[in-house]
Amino acid sequence: MSASPARLSPPSLLLLILIAAAAAGCGQQHPTGGMGGFPPPEVTTINVQPASFPVTFEYVGQTAGSKDAEVRARVTGIVEKRLYQEGTAVRAGQPLFLLDAKPFEAQLASAEAELLRAQAQKTQADREAARLKPLAERKAIGQKEADDAASAAEFAAASIKAAQAKLSEARLNLAYTRVVAPINGLSSRAQQSEGSLANANTTLLTTVSQVDPIWVLFNVSDNEQLRLNKAMVDGRLTLPRNNAFEVSVKLSDGSTFPSSGRINFADTRVNPQTGTYEMRAEITNSDLALKPGQFVRVALKGAQRQGALAVPQVAVLEGPQGKFVYVAGKDKDGKDIAVPRPVIVGDWSRSDGTNVWLIESGLAAGDRVIVDGLARIMMPNSPVRITEPAAAALPGQPPAAAAPAADTASR
């Protein structure tokens, strides 16, 4: 008994027909050169040419007070009261702590009494010297007695000066019981509570940081500094004289701080522990929005890349072997194709509102780089149709000449 042939249901038969049609279409090109029977994708190119571009260098930085003062007691005493609100802005001379003043008031009273005693002794010695002087002149007493009386008056005068000095010291120590802010700035938390003992010139009570202007510290690696120096020697880079960069700061949320500043210190020595040069910028901070210790991104503007090739950042793609761009090329039939070109990128810049990569190697002047329609390129060296760009994307780079229309090229 022979087996009857299996029958396919209508849905299965339709699926087989579609698969066969798709297989028949694979590998077939569109009359204009497209893959899989589709027309080639439209892309836009730019003709890269050497030009001068502004360069921005970015580094990670940290803010610090332009002045950091440690507030310490200048006399030994018990902390009686804290007179400021921790974390608030304080003015130079503003009282911050009050120490127990009673022992110093007693010392002041003792010094005042000592001065009065010395003055009384001086008055007595002056009277004695004045009484004996005429007697000595009449030879009624010996000259030695008169000289001793005059010396006693001089000793009394010296005692007055010593008492006055002790009185000034006692007044100064009493004034030191009010611990004041040495500078304008933001106060920190109190390191000693009320009732604790503060030792003279030793115990730290708090710190005050001057944050207007504020400093931003950042580091430049030795390798990067060598690279920049070589670019300057080769004439490919110009930097502002005397480090006169315009410094801007980006905060952790991505916003840019409204005030810009200048570099006020650049170390000439390499830190042996980090292998970096330390640099410091000064920025106006009148509203005290920046606080010491914040991590920020420091942007240095003012440098220029000379004779550089650049492409928009959207044109640079990431592949398994690194970054690359698509360049308009020709196949053996003279038709336009998208040729991948590995590139090494350098600094980034901004030109006419467009973020661009400066190309260190991989491109040459006159290359036509594809900047639009990249998502429609299915694979490397696939056919494309180049259309006329609206305008030159970068300064010094004219639009690439448009290729003939696809229907005209196929005739």
From TrEMBL:
Residues 213-301 form the Multidrug resistance protein MdtA-like beta-barrel domain. Residues 106-133 form a coiled coil. Residues 1-23 form the signal peptide. Residues 107-177 form the Multidrug resistance protein MdtA-like alpha-helical hairpin domain. Gene3D superfamilies: 2.40.30.170, 2.40.420.20, 2.40.50.100, Helix hairpin bin (1.10.287.470). The keyword Metal-binding does not apply. Keywords: Coiled coil, Signal. InterPro entries: MdtA-like_b-barrel, MdtA-like_BSH, MdtA-like_C, MdtA-like_HH, RND_pump_MFP. It is found in: Cell envelope. The keyword Coiled coil applies. Residues 308-376 form the Multidrug resistance protein MdtA-like C-terminal permuted SH3 domain. Residues 68-205 form the Multidrug resistance protein MdtA-like barrel-sandwich hybrid domain. Residues 390-411 are annotated as: Disordered. PANTHER family: ACRA/E-RELATED COMPONENT OF DRUG EFFLUX TRANSPORTER. Belongs to the membrane fusion protein (MFP) (TC 8.A.1) family. This is Efflux RND transporter periplasmic adaptor subunit. It comes from Candidatus Accumulibacter contiguus. The lineage of its organism: Bacteria, Pseudomonadati, Pseudomonadota, Betaproteobacteria, Candidatus Accumulibacter.
